[in-house]
Amino acid sequence: MLSYILRRLVQALVVVLIVMVFTFSLPYMQPHGIVAPAYAILGDHATPARVAQWAAQNGMNHPYLARLWTYISQVFFHLNLGVSYRENASVMSIIRLYVPRTVWLAAVSLLLTVIIAIPLGIYQASHRNTVSDYTATGVAFFLYGVPAFLLCLLALEAFSFHWPHLPSSPPSGVAPWAMFTNPVGFILPVACLTLLSIAGLSRFMRGTVLEVLVQDYVRTARAKGCSNSRVLFRHALRNALGPIITILGLYIPALFGGALIIESVFNYEGLGMQTVFAATNLDVPVVLGITLLITIFTLLGNLLADVTLGLVNPQIRIEGTKA
Questions:
Q1: CATH class of the 94-312 domain in this structure
Q2: How many CB atoms lie within 10 A of CB 225?
Q3: Over the stretch 196-223, which tens digit does the pLDDT of each residue have?
Q4: Where in the chain are the domains?
Q5: What is the pLDDT of residues 98-142, one digit of tens each?
């Protein structure tokens, strides 16, 4: 397993480098190139001389390869993600402030998603083609197709502007764990992010369980007289959890993407709202730092999912071959 983890870490390093090169090169393709933030920051005072002075102060007068190497070396050797143009603070300090808030929001939503979606998918598979199955499928399709911002607005209209009156946004300037000490303000953001995730995961769980239920070993278990509950939870569920664990590893970027919209709608000061603010104000170092962070979270989620899959199902060796 150690060799597998080391091999995956090397692959992850290559992916991180590719993402860094790609995201670092994107600002060159915008109007005014890499000095575009100078026009947003200087405003009406953006004369050619002032723009050139601003570019020199921020090291933008160097060649592309020299700037790229400086950025990669300072990230890997000094954990320095640069300085925010707007807030005049290090990107790492900004990330330390906002990331825990979004991580707790995403973690609680992921936990609720697993608790609700997996049993719901199993129930639909065991009661397929019934009224309850059709009802759950219709609700899942609606949640799967509705845009995130529209779901948030509908939730605000139903539960904040009318009865029952819930806060339209979490309290500002609170600690990351405030959702446990003052949970009322986080009910709507967590609920919306959870509903968006439940739809896809429950449908996938239903399809996976249905696929397992038609396998030969399940038919053999039924022929031996095993009860439906034993067949479902002893034989089908264990083998259906493999693809679900893999999907959960891929849900991490989806949760951060959903948090970006939900934090903006509910005015929650997290990583998503900071990303929107940085992108709107052309704060390139902050956007690069957040993109790099989400990439690392995604790669770690996939690695954790693969390792967990090998632990849950011993018949699958971690190298990817049958035992």
A1: mainly alpha
A2: 7
A3: 888 888 888 888 888 877 777 777 877 8
A4: 2-78, 94-312
A5: 888 888 888 888 889 889 988 888 888 888 888 988 998 888 888
